[in-house]
Predict the structure.
Amino acid sequence: MKNRPVYVPAALLLGTAAILTPAILPAQDTDLPAQAAENPDVVVYGTPPADLTGLTEGPEVEGMISARKDDKMQITTADGTNTVVFLSEATKIKSSKGLFGLDRSKLAADQLLNGLPVKIKTVQWSDNLVASKIDLRDKDLKTASMIRTGTAQGFAEQTAATEALRGRVADIDQYNLKGTTNVYFDTGKWRLTPQAEAELCGAANQAGAMDNALLLVVGYTDSVGDYDYNQTLSERRASRVVNHLQQACGWKPYRMLTPTGMAEADPVADNGTTEGKAQNRRVSVNILVSKSVDGL
């Protein structure tokens, strides 16, 4: 297998940057940032009420969970605004999966993981907001759970490094691409070959030798199959690569950008040939360094 340069779409990088901070948070019980704790608008008297009936409806909040502590969590929106929302016994948490959001399932509060995109309906409680309903997508929950499960070990000693790295890259949306490693898959499969596993650890070692390097993992498919099938397949391939990088290659979770599935977008070869399809069934592991810490 050959490592070949891969075009990383600008829109993908921009979107990744918008969610970078939640993706590198170290653990589920990360303390709320000092600025949120010291915010005079966040005044707490007792615990949120178990019955939200009759409380005034508050604003809808949509963004990423960027911190959790006890019965409150911080939501970071796409524009970087942080909003603290409290959880109550009456908070309803649901995931949507399937076509048009059908087949909804009820979830527990401990599944509200850092980095998880959510849409929250709120009510006013004193000067605070309490979540009355939290909606999330099933595939986002699976990705967040995968990252959480694969990286729980050793978070304590990683906290200081995580905070330092986050402070340097939180608002950066431009990167230098330092290298790309592609690994390839059989039709309809997401299992890694022994050669692919070795090449992934080689990429991790290459990136580990660079200061401030991050990994962006992007999964692709060939043109066989419909869009929904290929989207799911590309996400599974990306998730499998992330698991291997973290669990077998020792890549730190706080140096991993959120994995992405791109289905059959951005083919590197002609999908009209057998050879071309084989090259398009890939996951690209891109080594990125932000321009602000790369001397530019």
Remarks:
- The chain has two domains: 10-23+152-293, 34-137.
- The first helix runs from residue 10 to 18.
- The domain at 34-137 is CATH 2.40.50.140 (OB fold (Dihydrolipoamide Acetyltransferase, E2P)).
- The two ends are 33 Å apart (CA to CA).
